[in-house]
Every structure is written in C-alpha cells, then in structure tokens.
Amino acid sequence: MIARLCVALAALLGATAAWGADLMWGVNGHPFTAYPGISFARQLDFVRDLGMKSYRVNISTADDIPELAALVEQARARDIDILPVITPDLDLDAETAGDLYAKSYAMAVAMVSRFKDDIRVWELGNELENYAILTACEMRDDGIQYDCSWGPAGGDGPGHYFTPRWKQVSAVLRGLSDGTASVDPTIRKAIGTAGWGHTGAFERMIADGIDWDISVWHHYGADLKQPLDYLKTLGKPIWVTEFNHSSEKGEQAQADGLLEMMTLLRGYRQDYPIEAAHIYELLDEPYWAPSFEAVMGLVRLRKTDKGAWTPDGVKLAYGVAKAFIAAGGSSVAVPQSPAQTSQPASADPVPPAAGCDTGSLNTAVVNHANQVAYFYCLALNRLPNPTEQWRQALAMKQGRTVAEMMASVLETPEFSKVNGREEATNAAYIAAIYRRLLGREPDGRGLSDYLSRLDGNQMTREELALEAVGSQEFRSLHSFLFAQVPVP
Questions:
Q1: Can you give the residue range of the structural domain that contains 468?
Q2: Global confidence as pTM
C-alpha cells in the first residue's frame, strides 16, 4: 500500500500545472480554544510547511480579538491568510430573534472593523442550519406532523427545517452578514452548511434575503457532485472549508482517503467555481476520544507531564497533503464519485381531514414535541402550528411541567370555542369536557356534582377542565402525556 502511494505521489510531483491556477489549500485549527502549550508560531509553521496559504480558525467572542490580532501578525510573516469563522456564543433556545440579530450584528462590526485591512474574507456561522433540521414529531410548515418514527430530515429541501428554529438561525446569519457589510461592503462573506445534502438551507437563506459572496460546503465522504451541481446554480464561488478522512481506521486509510478527496476537488475545479479547500484539521484532538474527532488531524498530539500538549510526529496524511499541494496540478485520472443510490421520491403525506385523532399519532417516540402535538390534537382537535409546538416544547425543556403546558392550552379562547363554552349550558359544557378529554359521557354522579359546583359558583369552567386533566382517569387514558422524556 505504501509503495502504491509513493508511486502516485511521484507522479503528482512530476505533473505540470496544465489545469491552470490551483485551489487555495488551507487547514482548520482551534488556536484560541484548544491544545494549550502549542504556540501560534508552531501551528503556523506546520501550515507553511504543508504549502498551504490559509488557516481557518473559530472565534466566538470579541474577547478573543487580541489573540486573533497576534495570530494575524504571525501569519502575515509566513505569507498565510487567516480565515476566521465567527461562531457566536449565543443561546438560540432562550433569546429572541431580535436579540440574536442585534448581538450578531454588533459582534460582526466589532471583529470586522478591527481587521478590515488585514482580513478580506470572513466565514459567518458554522453549520448553524443543523439547529433547525426537523426532528421526530415536529410540525412542518404545511401543517403535517413530521413522522415520529423517522430520523432527522435530510435537509435538501426548504421544508426540512423547523421554522421557529430556522428564524433563530436566520436572525444570526442576517446579523453577521449585515454587520460585516456595514463595515465594508467589499469584504467577502462566506456562508454555508455542514454538507450532508443540506442544500435546502441555501434556499431558506435566499428567501430571507441573507446576503453572502461565497457558498460554503463541508465534505466528509458523501457524494460531492450533486451538491456542487446545486451550488453552481447560485452563481457564487464555492469554498469547501472542511473535508478529510479520519484516521480512526488507521493512518494508512486516512492518507488514502485524503489523497482521493484532494484529487477529486482539484479535478472538479474545471467544471465548478471551487476556489478554496481546507482540510479538517491540522492537529489531533485526543481529548475527544473515543469520538472520531480525536484523530482527524494531520499531526499527532500527546500530553506533557505538565498537562499541556505537544506535537508527537506527523501522520502519513501530512506527507500526502504536502506532496499533493507541491505538485500544483495533476495528470492523474480523477476518481469518479460513487454513483448515488437513487431513492424513490416519497410523496408528501395526505393532509388530514378536518379534526384530529390522537390514535393516528405515533406515541412510540416520547419527546416534548410529540407530547405537545398529542395534547393539541386531544384538546383543540388540531395539531399545533410549528411556532406553538416549538414554544411549548422549549418551555417544557426548560422546566415547564406537562400539567402547566395543558393548562395553558385549556385556558385559551380557542379551547372554549371548540367546546362551546360561551353558548352551552353548564350541563352541556360538562358533557363536552367529558367527551373531549375522557372520551365518554359523564356519569350521573359526576354530572350532578360538577353541575352543582358550577351553578353555585364554587368553580369556574376553566377549573373544571383542569380538574379533568388532573384526574387519575385522564392519566390512565393518556399515559403518553406523562411518560418520562429521555434525557439527550
């Protein structure tokens, strides 16, 4: 295997640059948040030795601006550009879209203003669309509940994102984009996704009026041609800011996989506007073990006796990347991307008829979103819209009880209207509540007891409904509502 690699590398080193200018090759690192003990200079010396021209680094707070300034200065001395990725340290669950926009805007202004003469490309956000991908039991924009038995949506269509969460993502991206443009509209803004088919996020961004100059894609072994075909239609340059092959199955496998990917990317630049490609990542992060992210680096790390980290030799993939970049072009045949297995397009579920049947919902999956959908169906004879479901589920995630969630629904004017509260007599209202929540007619004793209390102003109609959902009979009939939600 090693002999075969050497032959391939020899061919690369002897090839001419017949294809014109090569990609700008770069690598990822975490100089502000990881591997204490390894200086900026040591990291940048590796980047320069690899023949790379760009170091992609994450920055989450304006507090890191002084360190970024030091990194930029040392990178300039080595003819290396820094590609900062602004990854705002924000709470997308708790903050409003307005607050998220304002904070993101301010963050971009603070960072870009400081470096507008030194950094001319900024990547805004990192894989933020993952936060908004539809998951089990959530409500789609068309009013259909996403199947509780399915995994997360594929992300290749705009309808694969949960709108309440997407609004949070959109607010951050718009804030970063608008803030950057306010400093200098000629600075290039790079925005994209985690790859894995998430092209639908770009359609969402276009619909929201988010402005960007470079489309970002991440590539980890899936078919690359299909997303490139889509990204090409957007009419913007493409930067693949993360790609690699883990050494989880051995350093030889990583070197083979990396060589194949770099060859594929270099070949694709003839047909697609790919400008840059960044390997993920420069240094191993062994503290993530047993996750594959522990061994994604081109350089091994080991811990010192003092608790810091130090390089522990380069991997075979390091030499492969260095030789490939030095070649500047390749006459080696470009591997064909594996044929993608075609999947029959599934038709959208038929919208439900008027009304809602809890028996048609999948109660095998216990989560807050599904419990909210179940109770809306039961109490209001409809499924919640995405915003209602998200707000209720988020409140439950943050400590709201099932009883409090149900009370908030029972106290709405809509619940009163559905059950004829305004027009019905006390007796008719009692019967409606029994049918709606307990699935039966009231027995004689229950009817007379509640009727006496209502007629005597000893309880309100809202209290009647709350008492019904607090009964043991209700808990037995609808045990799904009270099932323990697994901790992620």
A1: 358-482
A2: 0.83
Per-residue pLDDT reduced to its tens digit, 197-244: 999 999 999 999 999 999 999 998 768 999 999 999 999 999 999 999
Domain count, the chain: 2
* Dist. CA 60–CA 87, nearest whole Å: 5
Query: pLDDT for 308-327, tens place per residue?
Result: 899 999 999 999 999 999 98
Q: Looking at the domain assignment, is residue 94 inside a domain? A: yes
Residue 211 sits at φ, ψ, to 5 deg, of -100, 135
- Residue 425 and residue 473 in one domain: yes
**Residue with structure tokens 């594959």?**
292
| Backbone phi, psi, residue 400, to 5° | -65, 135
Strands 274-279, 299-303: parallel, antiparallel or unpaired by DSSP? Answer: unpaired
Query: Are 18 and 167 found together in one domain?
Result: yes
